[in-house]
Amino acid sequence: MSFAKNLTSRTILVKEPVKQIIAINPSRNRRTSHASLPPQKSPSAIKLVDYQPPSTGVVSLLPSSWIPYAELARLDKPAGTYYLFFPCLFSTLTAASYTHAPIPAMLETSALFFTGALIMRGAGCTINDLWDRNLDPYVTRTRLRPIARRAVTPRQGLTFTGFQLLAGLGLLLQFPTPCLYYGIPSLLLVATYPLAKRVTHYPQFVLGLAFSWGAFMGFPALGVDLLSDPTAFKAVAALYASCISWTVLYDMIYAHMDIKDDAKVGIKSIALRHEKETKAVLSGLAIVQIGLLATAGVVLGASPVFFVGSGGSAAATLGLMIWNVKLKEVSSCWWWFKYGAWFTGGGISLGLLAEYIIQGDRPKDEIEVPRSAWRDLL
User: Fold this and answer.
1) Helix 186-199 crosses helix 203-211 at what angle (to 10 degrees)?
2) What single string gives the DSSP state of each residue in 135-161?
3) How far apart, in Å, are the Cα atoms of 140 and each of 10, 335, 356?
4) Could you tell me the pLDDT band of residue 275, with boundaries at 50, 70 and 90?
5) What is d(CA 98, CA 242) in angstroms, rounded to the nearest whole number?
6) Within 13 Å of residue 328, how many CA atoms lie on the same side as its CB?
7) What is the largest CA-CA distance in the chain?
8) Do residues 227 and 104 touch, judged by C-beta distance below 8 A?
9) Residue pLDDT, tens place only, 12-44
10) What is the pTM of this model?
């Protein structure tokens, strides 16, 4: 579907490789020249930096032909990977405390989840860029993404997505078989998030459903059947809802970086819908997140270490972020989004780890380590 058809019937200014400014009238689907268009509305009137290959970091060490694909998977911007990983880690540490899983099993499961987060976050970004290929060139922050700048064609991007999903499936097969049933449905949410931005002001909620899915995975990964264990299921449900609230919170801050461009091209977001009361909404989301996190602890009979460590650190770090973030400044929004993953996610994880340690772990021979799905297929 063309960019013109995706938007409402208003004149959209685009930048062509010629010096003349062109306008597209979607209602007539034809191009007409305009000699006196308002310069402040034209992307051509904005001085934009040209693309420069990365000169630092891991991506800069890759062959030049690989760099567009690494950028497509956002290997140069790992904050999203951490945000996808933390719900998995929360679930794993909670399940480890609940089952008294041995330390090696907990560490191995966490490492597999981190690898999976790296792969699937990359796949989600590629899918997102394919959906937004006709929108990204008109947003300042996204105009230099590989597909937007035509370093990768849509067909190449689709092929790359296939390889990413195959890699994700291969990793998923390393987990116990029940994880397949819990993991595969999340792909539907990954694919629909980019569409949600076109139809609702709350696409962050859909993103939360996808990014928080890992909250379901830790328990079956450590051998707990959620459907036959009501206590575990209730705890996971509360943890999942808590992570959804956290996702909406941090992505609302992230959305403020694009708020002006999103309004111009017709992208919807919670930041646009609640621009004037953003900090009040953020505070409400933080309260909901902490309350649901505490609910998970109550259900499992957690000790004060969990409530002080995880709940207390979440309250402190979220309060600090909401108080200090300057929503009108892109650099401030990016800084708090980037490091907020470690402040809040890291604090909750440390509290859960402390809870796991004081619970103690049983010897290996008292725990039946689940077989991987791959072994079940052989």
Assistant:
1) 170
2) TGGGSTTTTTSTTTTTSS-HHHHHHHH
3) 20, 18, 45
4) confident
5) 19
6) 2
7) 80
8) no
9) 333 443 333 333 333 333 333 333 333 434 444
10) 0.81
